[in-house]
Specification:
single chain; mainly alpha; de novo design (two linked rop proteins); 76% helix; 0% strand
């Protein structure tokens, strides 16, 4: 049986305190990326139920995980440095890739779920674009 999907607000309340204490937690895009990862984790269980979805699940969880991981790396390199912006662009590319993997999963995941994931990814993409363009 599939796990009940929690809202972003519900999810935030249940996040490990160690993560909430991180300075990176103040970043909306980081919190959204971490939320997406938890959602994708469950979505991958659904994808892996069909042999055709196994490689899709592998690609999806890697790209979704890379969104947050690259944000962590960029933050560690120093905010607003040229190197951090380069890594943010990588994160943006991963978010766009994840969007593509979700679109390719349309035969295995419910339409309403896909619409919610695409909307969340579109929000993450917008936030990343703004971060990259910020002087």
């Amino acid at each position: 049986m599939a796990e009940q999907e929690r809202s972003f607000e519900e999810w935030e309340q249940e996040v490990l305190p160690e993560l909430r204490r991180s300075p990176l937690w103040k970043s909306t895009v980081y919190r959204k990326a971490m939320y997406l990862y938890d959602l994708a984790w469950v979505d991958c269980d659904e994808l892996k139920a069909d042999f055709r979805g196994r490689s899709l699940a592998d690609q999806l969880i890697r790209s979704v995980g890379s969104v947050a991981a690259n944000l962590e790396e960029a933050f560690g390199r120093g905010v607003q440095t040229a190197d951090a912006r380069r890594i943010l662009r990588i994160s943006l590319g991963e978010a766009r890739e994840a969007r593509g993997w979700y679109l390719r999963a349309h035969r295995l995941l419910p339409t309403d779920l896909l619409q919610r994931r695409i909307a969340l990814l579109d929000e993450i993409i917008r936030l990343l674009v703004v971060s990259i363009r910020r002087p």
